[in-house]
Amino acid sequence: MPDPGDIDRYHRDVRAMLRYWEEKRQGRTMPARADIDPFELKPFLPGIAIIDVVADERRYVYRLVGTREVAMRGRDPTGRSVNDAFYGASAATSLASYDAVVNGRTPLFENRRFVTPDGRSGDEEVVLLPLSDDGKTVTKILAYTHHRLI
After folding, report:
1. Considering only Cβ atoms within 10 Å of each terminal Cβ, which end of the chain, N or C, has fewer?
2. Are the beta carbons of 87 and 81 closer than 8 angstroms?
C-alpha cells in the first residue's frame, strides 16, 4: 500500500473506494465479498470490476465489469480469464498486478496510460482491493478505475 501521503495524489473516487474497503475490513486483514454492498457503491459501479481468483490455469476471471469499464475496453470481458481479455500493456503486466494483490493481501495502486480500441488516449488511476471468504486467502479482487481522457 502506498505511503498515506501518496494516497492524497489519487482521485477522490479512488481514495473513497479505499476508505470503503477499509471500513468493511472491520479490523480484519481484508473484507469478504459478502461485506460489499452494491447499493452503497452505486456511484462507483460503472468503474468497478470484480475478478475471481480461481484455482486453475485461468488464475483470474472477470466476474463483473462496470459499464464504463466495458465502454473503455470496447468489449465486455465478463466470464473470461484476464489472460484472454486483459486491458493493459500486456497480459503479463495485468497478471503480475493481480498476483501482487493475492500474494500481499493488500491494496495495490497503479497509474497507467491507455489507448482505447477506438484510438482515444488517457490516464487512469486504479486501486485493486483484495477480498477473502476466510480472512486469509484472497478469493476475489475488487478493482476501481478512474479514467481521464486526454
Report:
1. C
2. no
**Which candidate, 130, 113, 129, places its Cα nearest to that of 16?**
129
DSSP H helical ranges for 2-150: 4-7, 12-25, 67-73, 82-85, 91-104
pLDDT of residue 95: 92
Distance in angstroms (rounded) separating the CA atoms of residues 43 and 47: 9
**Contacting residues for 57 by C-beta, under 8 A, at least 6 apart:** none
Q: How many angstroms separate the Cα of 49 from the Cα of each of 82, 85, 120, 137?
A: 12, 13, 21, 19
CA distances from 29 to 19, 44, 71, 134, 146 (A): 14, 23, 33, 10, 25
Q: Give the separation between CA 144 and CA 92, rounded to whole angstroms.
A: 20
Question: 48-70, pLDDT tens digit by residue?
Answer: 999 999 999 889 999 999 999 99
Question: What class is the 4-149 domain?
Answer: alpha beta
pTM of the model: 0.91
Cell of 28: 480484519
CA distance 56 to 93: 19
